[in-house]
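re: that chain from earlier
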Amino acid sequence: MARLADYFVLVAFGPHPRGSGDGQGQILQRFPEKDWEDNPFPQGIELFCQPSGWRLCPERSPPTFFVAVLTDINSERHYCACLTFWEPVEPTQEGLCARDATEQDEEAAEGSPGALPSPAPGPPGQLFAPKTLVLVSRLDHVEVFRNSLGLIYTIHVEGLNVGLESVVGNLLTCVIPLAGGSQRTISLGAGDRQVIQTPLTDSLPISRCSVALLFRQLGITNVLSLFCAALTEHKVLFLSRSYQRLSDACRGLLALLFPLRYSFTYVPILPAQLLEVLSTPTPFIIGVNAAFQAEAQELLDVIVADLDGGTVTVPECVHIPPLPEPLQSQTHSILSMVLDPELELADLAFPPPTTSISSLKMQDKELRAVFLRLFAQLLQGYRWCLHMVRIHPEPVIRFHKAAFLGQRGLVEDDFLMKVLEGMAFAGFVSERGVPYRPTDLFDELVAHEVARMRADENHPQRVLRHVKELAEQLYKNENPYPAVAMHKVQRPGEASHLRRAPRPFPRLDEAMVQWIVDQAAAKMQGAPPAVKAEKRTTVPSGPPMTAIVERSGGLHGNSARRLEVVRNCISYVFEGKMLEAKKLLPAVLRALKGRAARRCLAQELHLHAQQNRAVLDHQQFDFVVRMMNCCLQDCTSLDEHGIAAALLPLVTAFCRKLSPGVTQFAYSCVQEHVVWSTPQFWEAMFYGDVQTHIRALYLEPAEDREPFLVCGGSLGRGMGGPGSRSPVALRQAGEAPVQEDERSALDVASEQRRLWPTLSREKQQELVQKEESTVFSQAIHYANRMSYLLLPLDSSKSRLLRERAGLGELESASNSLVTNSMAGSVAESYDTESGFEDAETCDVAGTVVRFINRFVDKVCTESGVTSDHLKGLHVMVPDIVQMHIETLEAVHRESKRLPPIQKPKLLRPRLLPGEECVLDGLRVYLLPDGREEGAGGSGGGPALLPAEGAIFLTTYRVIFTGMPTDPLVGEQVVVRSFPVAALTKEKRISVQTPVDQLLQDGLQLRSCTFQLLKMAFDEEVGSDSAELFRKQLHKLRYPPDIRGTFALTMGSAHTPGRPPRATKDKGPSFRTLSRNLVKNAKKTIGRQYVTRKKYNPPSWEHRGQPSPEDQEDEISVSEELEPSTLTPSSALKPSDRMTMSSLVERACCRDYQRLGLGTLSSSLSRAKSEPFRISPVNRMYAICRSYPGLLIVPQSVQDNALQRVSRCYRQNRFPVVCWRSGRSKAVLLRSGGLHGKGVVGLFKAQNAPSPGQSQADSSSLEQEKYLQAVVSSMPRYTDASGRNTLSGFSSAHMGSHGKWGSVRASGRSGGLSTDVGSRLAGVGPAQANGAPPDPGFLRPQRAALYIIGDKAQLKGVRPDPLQQWELVPIEVFEARQVKASFKKLLKACVPGCPATEPGPASFLRSLEDSEWLIQIHKLLQVSVLVVELLDSGSSVLVSLEDGWDITTQVVSLVQLLSDPFYRTLEGFRLLVEKEWLSFGHRFSHRGAHTLAGQSSGFTPVFLQFLDCVHQIHLQFPMEFEFSPFYLKFLGYHHVSRRFRTFLLDSDYERIELGLLYEEKGERRVPQACRSVWEYVERLSKRTPVFYNYMYAPEDAEVLRPYSNVSNLKVWDFYTEETLAEGPPYDWELAQGPPEPPEEERPDGGAPQSRRRVVWPCYDSRPRAQPDAISQLLEEMQRLETELGRPPERWKDAWDRVKAAQRLEGRPDGRGTPSSLLASSVPHHRRSLGVYLQEGPVGSTLSLSLDSDQSSGSTASSSRQAARRSTSTLYSQFQTAESENRSYEGTLYKKGAFMKPWKARWFVLDKTKHQLRYYDHRVDTECKGVIELAEVEAVAPGAPTMGAPKAVDEKAFFDVKTTRRVYNFCAQDVPSAQQWVDQIQSCLSDA
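^ sequence. v structure.
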């Protein structure tokens, strides 16, 4: 029984002590005056009576009522019911508080919440003061409080004849039962009657209608987010104008949280004076009057729910985790069914008659039922994760959070994680975990209704029925007696508050009230306590838990087959069948990614451990440790699946004998896992084990069978659960279910709690002591276990501190319940007194001691171990650790003596000539990256990666060579390499090695040749070696100077960084020439400085100005140049003439002459007929350093004017002609973008120049003149018919939008009044059907010159008034966008780690994000546009950015599309040399070649150009002489720095370094190609790899490719790889060993089959399966060799075949349908070509397998050596080969040991005293040399095995040298005799 009311208080208005405007509350009277013993009087009631503050009011307001809640220090809630009414103020008070009336009005409006009838004013100037009656109670009977206070007020107002004292006295003495569903009628002695019903169970909250109201005010989504916010401990603030609504909303929210109790600050109505409480750091649920909304808005982390406005505002910084799916959506839909039942019927054609809507009270219970079900679903099976740590004297229960999350499949779920970590859940466990207690609705639901809820999930009507049943029970709980007698309570009359009250509320007689209270108290003492005994029972556990969503295991579905493999492998290990086990191991390691396989492993190992097989030999031990490591590597720190828990007893069981008396246990090899340093894991394990032992204490001995037999030992224990029996662990592992009769720990505990009161005191004491000693012994056991797993084998390393971040972090933030002082002090004393010399060891030990002490502190305090025992433990821990360290020292010492495991020997990579190894192989594992092919992904094929091998660093490449770790893949060599220069990103990673699962340092290297090396260093590689590797790599990647690059250091003796000295020559060599040239240029223009940040254009300055070397600032620009610097061309000095002639040999000049753009002679003699001339004005690179020496300019422009023109353009790159159309004679010009000042002057109105014109104006005038000259030098090319190529083009290609619409992205807002674009493209108002527009809209005359410029640059520019030139502003991307886009493209094509969702979708998405194809589309689009303009006769000037990136791309593409010459091998070379190299594309800057460029990063402008060419090649495969491989080759080598071609930023820089003319000098280094073109030329002679067999060009074909993104393909250069040999672009290295031809084997057996498996991403498909033509050419070479004829060149054979084919097709008109030469089908060129190319026949990438080897050469290495030796001897002989051939012919030669006989062309050279041999007669490259000086004798020989068959024996002879014997065979006997004679005579001559 409990008092209905504890205190009755009368609070009135009093003046503020400091005399401020507001008053304050004063307690006039309180009853009883003395505090109750069990319940002191709550403080601060006067604040809560008027939460908005005490104020006077000018009108009478009606009385108000609300209930405030105060929480005391013991978390008891006190309900303060407040009834407030207003009384007139006595004059004394009025005087104190006279204030401005308007102010009072406002405040009155605020102070009276709710919509009130308009109050009637009193007498003028009359003020009213509030007075409040307060009832304080611990019970929550709002209606009774309202009635009781109302009765007291009524008696006062109506003047009823009842003593107020007696009513108050009766109220205070009224006693009612707490719960149990009883009904009690009370009366306060004023003729009233009230019935109080108590709820059936006290634990269920009473909500009345508050939940339903909350949903009405805020809606479903908002309430759900508030619900989640309250559960995840966020701050929630309610706002409303009504206090009653605030308290209802708070009550409703709390009711929803049941069965969890809210344990933070809970203040439904917060007074204004306490608003600063809102900035508290702890969570809260608080209600505040809406008047204080402004204050609420300043709070940054508070969720504000506005009840009146129906909104919930969540601040940006707050994240409320939602309910886990599918619960979130299910809950949402059920709530809407409850709140809006009509929703389901809204769409029905024949809706049923109106459904009955539940009453508000009933709806309230239905809503609560939904949330009750939700909690039952969320927490289903929670009792299986309770650990019973102590039963007596009080139950101590812990919850195994990790196991719960793991088994519910919600480890990742943010919401549940936070709920389980919250205070409310901790309270839930301690309150509901108790096994023997009264149960309520929630316990029933979670135990018995789970199956039903699962079954109902997809049937909304059944769910609704369940909800209604639960709602009935909740309603019944609140209203046990529905037919309740009516209340009878008097109420005041209508508007009674307006009548003038007879008197103020009287002062009550304290004594009388006290007397009534005392009387009642005396009566109560006599009466027996009417307490209903609570019915306590064992709480049902319910069915074991299941996952919320049954997720399939995905890739590793735990099929029985996988488990079978695991079991077999383990049984092989224990039976000693090591080879079998080794085969299965990779499959087992893969299977162990699945959870069931890991469980299975733990169980199997457990069985073996039980059968005393724990002592293993070394190999078995290694296998077991590897499998354990693999199991543990996927364990999170929580170990939610109990795997680490199951393995913990095993790692201390399995061991191996290292030497007598020294045993190594498995734990010393599995320490590298994060789970061991997680305190939560150890606590859960400890509690699980304690529970097992406590249970065993109380079980009868008969029943206490060893728990290990049933399940995998502590596999069950670790999973927690009622007792060590975790049905889940077993069920999921597929074992038989546990017998039902075994009682769980909770059952045992429940039984013991029931018996506890019946036991004697001694017995109780005994049980308590037994339990405590059990806990204590487990604590010692765990201190040992933890030291095993935390102390590293080599304790001298302080490795532990680095890797176990967990331990370090715990140092600072201990979560121990005990203060840390005890653990700390013991650990410290241990550190100081242990007397260790080695500080580091002490450090490791100290850390472990502190960690264990903290653990011991926490668990022992929670488990109620006495402090004496705890102290004892603290003393023991350091000794345990110390002992263990000593044991480990011996183990470590012995384990070092074990023979190391045999590692595969390192495979050395093949190197290029001149390539040297910088760092020898470091052992690494190459790990799979995001490309799934190599790892045996969806494409099938074996798992080549991970591979085990070594990483080599050479001067040119980074190379990995190794073998796959998976033994089933076979002996495949895996090679992955890339040039050092291509490295774009290097990052340190920490990864697990695939074999031992150890965490190792690794590196991830990414290159711009689309390779990724993701590797983990082997443990034998020290961190210093790895660091050295990184440093060397960095040094090679970014040499301080360009001279340090491989192309310049290769094969040369000089040290990098110093230019080679030139020897004095008689004639001026090219080297000295280039030096003169540079010297002159320097004299002319001073030195150029490049600051680090940005490339500065070369600047002008006075000639004599000194240039100190260290000066870093930009040189000032002086406008005028001295006249002497520009020598007129007639007065060239001799050295200049020499320069001129060398310039003439450059590619540009050759091309200008081909195009008929003027020859140099004509420009020197000024032939006027030519419109353009070649100007040598820049021969000293004085005007523009990044331009070539000779430029094409209009004939009419003088050289000295050019310099002024150049100032208007960025980097002085003024417009020059680079190509002229042969047909339309239109020219293509290129330049840099305009400088701002130039633009303004250029397009000014043409007014007369004023006399004092500024420099800028004069130069812009020059510029205008220059453009005028360009225009006038073009022939007038106009067609009478007005050919409309552009409009036709635009309609065909672009639909009706016009070319321009899409080129310039922003459409018509180009700032041009008459839109040039639309005029050009002829799209006026386009026709509706997309047909070409009416020709009437076309301009009659097209401009002679179009200037394509950057939109941003040409803003607001007026077009040329004479319309001779027109501006075309377009939007282009910048170099930095190319860079960013390429970065993303790299990541898309070569991802660093596997995609989250496998399949092509993620690749395509990331490809789209990179925007690479969009940039290609833009380039092609602009280029096609320019091609159209040129074709139609208008000239075009491309003037974008600085004129060296996008301008170069566009100009090159335009020439490639317009001129078939550039589509040949020679022409493409010329195009690249001219436009990219001579016109100064900054290869070194864009490729970040040196240290200075490191910050700018890699920007692949040239690669983007090649990609565009590749796209055109795909669309027009018959128009290009070169194959797609050629483009890939250039793409690879323009970044590889193997050749000098693509080094440096301009011709000027190349001359300065002496690179440009060196190739023509006499001292050519013979062995290495310096230039990529030379290399291509040499290679083309030997193999058709760069040639496109489908080349059948049409004359003068202008190509117009489609440029839409949908027409573009991803270049396979980005995605393909060949792991057999690395990138195929270094031809010498890509030649694998030749395959033996299919012929009889020497032993006369059958011919061996030549079938072979071609693996994707491993083999080079074109090499393994060459296309038909390459194969035929190879076959021809082979047959010719067999016939003994020197094979002819492939090109000659091919040309012959083509010619014959053409002739064959002509005379009778019958074409050859089988012909591959598709010239017979000119239509369908585009599409047919593409198909042909994709078919295997037309595949043009024919890397024919080393053609010279099949025709009988020795290996290339010996060839290399031989060639080098002779060339050094006879370097002075520069005569042609033919002159010193004294005798020549074909001989068969037997190769070296075990090599076959081959026919060779031999040359006897008497001059050089050599016998040389070649592949065939016309071969220029010598394959080998026999020095006659070394010949000892020439004798007749005998045929050996494999010799030519039909040859006489006498035709054989041997030549014996000091090194070896050569066997020869001539074609017949006479020729053999002749050879012998010739050689003999040669020898005798010597």
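The two ends are 135 Å apart (CA to CA).
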